[in-house]
Protein 1
Amino acid sequence: MNAAVSTPYTVPAGLMDALQVTVLVLVAVGATAVVLIRAHVRQVLALSVYGVLLAVLFLVFQAPDVTLSELAVGTVVLPILLLLTLAKIRKREE
Amino acid sequence: MTPSLRRWVFLAGAAGLVAFYLWGLVGLPGFGDYPGPYGFIVNHIAVPQTKATGVVSAVNFEYRGFDTVGEEFILFTAAAGVSIVLRRLRGERQRPAVDEAADRDVPATSSAVRMLALLFTGPVVVVGWWLASHAQTNPSGGFQGGVILATAFILVYLSGEFLVFKRFSPVNLTDVTEAVGAGGFAAIGVSAVAMGLPYLYNFLPLGTTPGAVSSSGTIALISFFVGLEVAAAFILIVGELLEQTLLIRQGQ
């Protein structure tokens, strides 16, 4: 991942590699956690946290626009839609 | 099929998958390798050509503007679909929000949540509005701005009551805003055609200073309309679900 343009903000390549690997591992762990958690409400909260991790991943890979979408959609709107649906379903089941 | 035969069939399939997967991995280009050329070309020409310093916006609303129209109408259609599916049906009636699952222990909204939500509402509105209305110079543009604006309304719901959320986003106003946003984008494209230019051609003056408020012609304008559309669509979807969950019950 050699940067095409050198800017005053350039981070040492080794540091950037370490950061990217760390975030990739965290995302893999987060995704596994979301799949393995069975309690619905907890699963939704895990999904929200996973959204934050993905947002950081996109930021580290230099896609700030995708970061902003993921932050708003993945960590706020999607969990809220799921929580509301769960609330509605729970009422019908009783 | 006996269980042991089934296991063998699975193992054969899995082995094949693993083999092909590894074979595919070997042939992948190196990590971060980009053969180009479009990215390099866009990086090179976007700023002088469109006078937008936010190259993502230049790509989204100019070079592949036609794609973005399609995406915009996907969201528009989705919001319309949610409105139709979640409308009040015959046999359902609306009544004040009462908790139906009385056995469940519902903690009252803590003052910390209320405070934080109140505290963040203002800044979130500012960031969303800036992203939507200054696409020519910021990293994203209308879609991100719109979603972030919509989360401000969700914060209002968190900090207060559902009824406050409804008062801040009356359905009629949200509907009209969404239609204006989606229609505005399409109308800009058609205006170009009316002038004898290609659909979505950037016909407005581009300005001279890249990234200035008056620069980039239709890019900033389209982004603004997209922001309106996206914010309204998300508010509509969340509002419909809130209403469905809190206010509409099965009738007797």
Protein 2
Amino acid sequence: MPSTSSTANLQGASSGNGSEPLVRVDDLTVRFPAGRAGFWGQEKLFLHAVEGVSFEIERGETLGLVGESGCGKSTTARAILRRVPLTSGRIRFAGQDITEVEGETLRQLRKGMQLVFQDPYASLNPRLRVLEIIAEPLLVHGEIKKLREAEDRVAELLELVGLPPEYMFRYPHAFSGGQRQRINIARALSLEPEFVVADEPVSALDVSIRAQVVNLLQDIQERLGITYLFIGHDLSVVRHISHRIAVMYAGKIVEVGTRDEIYENPKHPYTQALLSAVPIPDPRIEATRKRISISGAFPDLLRPPGGCRFHTRCPIAVERCSDEEPPLESKNGAHRAACWLT
Amino acid sequence: MSTNGTPLLEVRSLQVQFFTRGGTAHAVRDVSFSIQPGETLGLVGESGSGKSVTAFSILGLIQLPGRITGGDVRWKGESLLGDAGERRLQRIRGKELAVVFQDPMTSLNPLFTVEKQIGEVLRLHRGMSRGEAHERVAELLDLVGIPSPRAKAKAYPHELSGGQRQRVMIAMALAGEPELLIADEPTTALDVTIQAQILELIAELQQQLGLAVLLITHDLGVVAEVCSRVAVMYGGKIMETGTAFDLFERPGHPYTKGLLSSTPRLDIVLPRLVGIEGVPPDLITPPVGCPFEARCPIRIDRCVDEMPPLERHEQGREVACWRAFDILDSEFAGRVERQRL
Amino acid sequence: MALDARSARLQAAREEELLRGRPYAVIRAMRSTVTELWSDKAGMFGVLVMLVMFAMAIFAPLIAPYPPDAQSLFDRLQGPSWDHPMGTDQLGRDVLSRVIYGSRISLEVGLAVVALAGTFGVLMGLVAGYRGGRTSSFIMRWVDTQVAFPGLLLALIILSVVHPSLKAIIIVLAINGWMVYARITRGIVLSTRERPYVEAAELAGCKSRRVIFRHILPNLASPLLTLAVLEFARMVIAEAALSFLGLGTQPPAVSWGLMIAEGRDYISSAWWVITFPGIALSLTVLGANLFASWMRITADPLQRERRFARAAMDPSAVAR
């Protein structure tokens, strides 16, 4: 097989490339134009989807990005993949600043970063056979000229994701949700990317199938040393696959730390509330559990509140919280949280 | 199953089929359960189990290509099927029998204010006048925890958040002063913090109003929070029923055990997630024997040929399995290595 | 060894899915189309009518009993008889033959306009939908402007200035008819663009052209086909209207619209002169509409299942 990526070899453990993280996001801000307001339409409205987000992802690790709908996690991921225009901030991938690349350079860049979609039903073109779907990236980047040449590679990929290679000749409608996600994963891996964004890859699957797919992703990471950005809202699932976790709320990162730090010793009130809201499948525990309830509604991202964005719903907010926005600072080594009070 | 008096809702040997070009899908096969007044029953299952179809059948919402082809649905002892049954259903639906659906975005009419929509129920089923309805709407919105209820009553659905819309749905369901609330995946489309609030609300209302609830969900965590009794469905049939405490602690059916094992928990960290290998059965040619047989770690020959009946074990516990209560903790964990298609 | 075994399995699977494919797939597609038609009698009627009309147009010289312009002043205004099943007109010409030959122009105009307007409109819609931004705004405003003009009036004005030849009619109608294709195409492109599999293709590095033709275009096939059939019917009527008003087909050519115009004066005395071309016109349009309606349902999986279930309903099942 012709060697594909021009960057690091993927076989075995992640190759040390010094201490530079694979993905580095600096002060990322994404604002979407959202029409106009005011009597004469003079005020331009913007949706503050992501504001001043910074984090890093080391090679071979999985960063779990959690938050509820509207928190900006999907937008952040797509900004990294250069699918969404940035308002400001910088993104570094494999040591290169990719914030402004376009055209052919961007296309080439796409070989190194891929996305696994959430919806197993809408993410596969129903008119193409599995072979064509998985081989398309190879065709488009000139790695193969005809479909026939791709069969071996596709067979390998299907086996990697646990599907019989013969399935490559079928159409997507012949497969179940879990199988389609496997095909999705196989497609994402076809160009041997170093970085894969998994955007809620198991949310649309049945519980008994989720484990299969999550375990598959973990296995692949062990074998190929791939770096993941795992986006999810199911905290129980995210816990299993992530090394480190970043919690987002209303476009900002409110807490980041290792998996154990976040789950066992959450510092930010939102993280604490989030964790206490997750139902545990055990009626005895549920009956005695104390819930931290947060009232109120999600802030309006067209006109975000001043100060800490969570202060309108925070159970321990004080005056300072509505005036000054707390920075994301270290509370315990690399465990950082954005709160004045913890 | 409790034995005091006539159950509020009784489903007997329900059969629902879908006539499609690809064949006839047997979505619900011989399903029976009942709900007593004031009780919360959780109907649990994954996609294809038939749980939503069962709920829709009770409500008379099955449309072509689907059809109820057998069995009965009874409300306080009287059938809801057939012509007479349909008239009865029209009377109680929205009133004594209320429903909350999954997607709050599309369940509310975007053209009318909250007040108008809830008011419609009040005027239709409770015969209230405009003024009376006005008052009651504010009361209901307050009951479901919506802040500034009078102001919010005048709002349109798109002005409310997802959680608020779901509360409005619940308010609308409560407007008829129902005895049974059917909630079809009421929190699946909501964020987890909002889900917690809604579930708390349902539990509170259930206590305050003595409401019976049929909660349909795939999430065992939700069931653990709200339901007193549980029925587990798979492949169009009921596999097990029992009280929540009992079922979670000591599942009798291998599928229940598998489902519990594959639900990741915040409080228990495993090195690897455990699932159930295989896929759900094809509903067009459903297996003759137990539908779970192909994926069951403790199956025996009998399971392939004969469908085990839903048998009563101890008080309140029913299991449809030839080897009920045989399943051990290790059975599913041991299959972790062979997680193939 | 393992690799050989796998290759063998692949080969077998490929044959089963792909190669038994071609003729088999075509036959299967045809058979399922016939089943679909059978379950919707109205649709079937529509298709048959259209087929009959087209056959009439194609085989006109073989089936018309008389030349369409053969005059016989001796036989003028004869009622329907064995010799002339549809009677004769004011110049003694056989109405049946004229109806048969008339189908040629009517259908030709319909097809040509759909082809011309459709191609242009779809292209505009594709560009507007995929490019978005200024390009889209420009094209859509152009569409809006043209739509604002009263179509028939514009056609009449142009045709009264330019000599109304067949080519002119087709061009004028096409100018008036491309907008609807553009709007529908753009709408579908916009909604398809958002689908995850299109995003996946772009993320994989596909260039725009490939994305449009491979991933977006196939979704357009069904709706556009339905639209084309309906537009075809509309164009047939448009041509008839123009001919009726004297600015369409000119004698000695024959079209249904022209026949209706010529027979206007004889409604009470010789009803057959105007009635038969009228029936032909109505049937064609009805057939096209029924066909389009059938296609719309067939293209939508849910509707198609409902139709199937209705037909297959077992009356002894429990009623609900």
